[in-house]
Amino acid sequence: MLNRISLMILGGTLLLAAPVFAVEPTGLAIMQLVDTRDDGDDLIQKMQQRLIDRHGSVREREMASFRKDYGKDSKSITYFLAPSNVRDTALLTWDYDGVEKDDDQWLYLPALKKVRRISSSDRGDYFMGTDFTFEDIKQTPELEDYNWTLTGSESMQDQDVWVVEGVPKTEDLKKNLGYSKTRYYIRKDIHMFIRVVYWDRKGQELKHRLSDKISQIDGIWTVLHGTMTNIQSGHSTELIFTDQRYNTGLSDRMFSERMLKRGYRENE
Amino acid sequence: MKKLFNWLLSHPKSVLLLLLLVTVLAISQMRHLHIETDLDAMLPKQSDAYINKQVLESRFGSADMVIIGIINNSKDGVYNTHSLALVKELTNWLELQPMFRTLALNDLLSLATIKDIRGSDAGLDVEKFMDDVPATAAEIDHLQQRMHQFAVYEDVIVSGDGKGTIIVVRPMRHKYAEIYDLLQAKVAELEARGGPERFLVSGRPVIEGVFGAYMPAEMKRMQPLLMGLLVLLLFLSFRTPRGVLLPMAVVLMAEIWTLGTMAALGAPMYTITTMLPILILAIGIADAVHFLSRERLLAHYQAYAHHRERLTEVMHELWKPMLMTSVTTGAGFLSMLASDLPPIRDFGMFAAIGIVYALLITMLLLPASLMLLPERPKHAERKPLFTGYVEWLGGAVLRHPKRIMAFFAALLVVAIFGLMKLDVNASLVEQFKPDDKLRQADETLNRHFAGTTSLDVMIDTGRENGLLEPQFLQHLAALQAEIEKSPSVGDTSSIAEFLQTMNQAMHGDDPAWRRVPASSDLAAQYLLLYSFSGAPDDFETFITGDYRHAHVRINMKTDATKEVAALLAQLKDKTEVWFPADKGYKVEWAGTGFTVYRLSQMIIEGQIASLATSILAIFLLCWWMFGRLLIAAIAMIPVSLAVTVNYGMMGNLGIPLDIATALTGAMALGIGVDFAIHYLHRYHEESSAGHSYEESVINTNRSVGHAILFNTFVVVGGFLVLLTAALYPQMKLGALIAATMVICYLATCYLFPVLLGLGKSKLKV
Fold this sequence. Notes:
CATH topology of the largest domain in chain B: Multidrug efflux transporter AcrB transmembrane fold
Strand order of the largest sheet of chain A: 6-5-4-3-2-1-13-12-11-10-9-8-7
Strand content of chain A: over 45%
Number of strands of chain A: 13
CATH class of the largest domain in chain B: Mainly Alpha
Distance between the termini of chain B: 24 Å
Distance between the termini of chain A: 58 Å
Order of helices and strands of chain A: HHEEEEEEHEEHEEEEEH
Low-confidence stretches of chain B: none
Mean pLDDT of chain A: 87
Largest sheet of chain A: 13 strands, antiparallel
Shape of chain B: elongated
Number of helices of chain B: 23
Radius of gyration of chain B: 32 Å
Oligomer: heterodimer
């Protein structure tokens, strides 16, 4: 009885207090929503990379990738399918959360028939010769390295978005990341960013990122098509993702040197 | 004609007003003038050097890099914490400058950005040589050792003796002079801290930028100097304010009109065309001086009582020789249109236009002003300076014909001897004086490192993935080895070298594996592997994305065209064997070394064509004017002799034909022939009037000797002013034309009378 009364009181208070809850969350809170968004425990998908230079000539690559989460860490293996001269080249990565421990990477070159461990890259280094850096390809940037500010809300691609700006906290971070400022446009309904603008260390606009095709697959919101354009060099990268399968229960053995050598099989 | 002159003299105020209006109009246009210093813009658009440079830039990105050297001559060289911290600081600063492009690794190479590729049995390490500045002796030793083992960057980024290191950075285009100023200021700031390091700034864009900025600045500085000289000479000659001011007004107006015309036509100021103002001042003054001398001589003899009649007579007497001299000088300059190079064509065309303007203004301004100015009865009594010499000359030449002939014969022999030694060589860096900061920086950098002049080979394999083939890569490596045999080459780099390093690293760093990948697939996989740690356009410098085109970059220690020509000749046979055209290969050259080589080749070929054109044109004009083939031939003698002596002198003094010196021939020809025309024209008048050979010589001397002498002083003096310039091309041009003009004067006033006296009946003109 008492409980019911107190619940009613609480409910009434909540109703009264409702306008307070309508106040926009902070920039950091929004980025945390993005960070904790469900992206499945494991994922198999195919990826097509289209590297487009400033003359418009295109280089294409196709690969199949497998990813499995281990808490905040993750392991992934990527097999190259095309072009034919790099077919069966494969990359195994053990990705550790935080910046304290360097990632582990192994590479298999079929022409040499050897696996080589390769040194990890810096966060600001470009990823596989694309316009994405290693920092960019993470699901979210390291939140504690930036000061996040919500600068407003607007409508984009017929969706309501928050506009959140992230500025690296120190000069060293700016140097490591290669950015002096970033601006994310985040969909309020599904907590995914659909557009990002990056500024270089000189304070000039550097890159534009766009996720222009998003669908729900196995209940998980997934980017199907994205582009990153370096507006200074004119180089751009298009990523096309297909054949997603979430939470298939990938085995730990998948992410080993042996599998790296064995190569890709269609029905894993 | 007389009617026209009379009309001019009856409307002096309208004439002056008209001149003033045109001048104001020209001034209003002058703000549109723009300066073009880009070396590539000086090439004709259809030239292979121009086209290849565009292809190079679009296919592989710009190859023109700015170089900053840090030299430390103390025991450990740059391998100490202080110097390395400076490298890091400067690199970091450059990354933040909007004037530089720093997107990919190849945009900014320094000890603080380059990466070491090392292999072991288990893996492959790609990491920066210097992530943090090494603090301990052990760390520094380690860095030095790795640099030595990796070898690719030794002599390129760090000198072999460790005394110096360089930072190579890609500038944004067309701000080269500003970039130099910016870097000079930064470097001065670093040097002011008092460390043992010295800083040097060079690189092709900087050299071009500074060269381009020097030329107009020097011209601005020399203009008042030349004007001062003209004022002095005019005063010594005429000793009246009007004798000074009127000719000065004529040439300044002509200069303004010419610049105004250039601006209105949208013609850019090239480094060569910056010499136009000085040229117009020095040449344009002749007409005014001839006019005033003649007017004064007539006034002196009081041949015409009335002011106006006398002016009409002067105009009537002089319009023909003045037109002729202007036309012949103009023809000398217009012959430069035979050149393929826009700056030289512009130079010739606008010089000719300026000369026509000077003639027009002389014929309008002088009579109109003299009509308006009051008669000065006294000035006629003053004798011009050098009258004594001119009078003596008339007699002296008649007394010593043999000595004069002997002198000129000896001169000719020496000149022909020198002609045989004449050499072709051009270098942009050598246009700066040896003590110039930039030249010293460039020389120091060339001594310590691979070289600051780029030469580029582009090879089209004709098919996608063609450059991955082992045989092609082997030939590419062989080409590099062949090029590096040349002592003028410091270093070469290409994708082959890079793939060899990767191959070695992937085989446990065993030097035996330092060879090109054994299969096309392996090469592709190495490139993919490298891309894991590189920016998307890191490769752009060496290969295209479809793996069809390859680029070999050559660093030369000199930009002397002779060295480039020798290297090109040496490689031609080899490239034809390694990259045969019938198998679809195509080899093209580009880069600064090639541009300068082609540029000088075109200048020299163009000069031979324009020299021939101008000799022919001037000869035909003289023939038409004097009506006799023999006299036309005689008129050509002083200039031909002077030009021969000019090139002979260059051969004897070891001055090679280059961009500036090649111009002297046609210029000297056009200017020098004026002396002969004035002389012969007067001689013709005198002998037609029934005077004997001796009388005609003496009278001719008395009449035009003074004006020719003055003319010589002005042109010689004017071009000698160029000796004060900071750059060699202007100095060489100045000295050579001045010397040529002296020969021309001597040949006209000494040799002519002797030649005219040859033959039994003495030549009648």
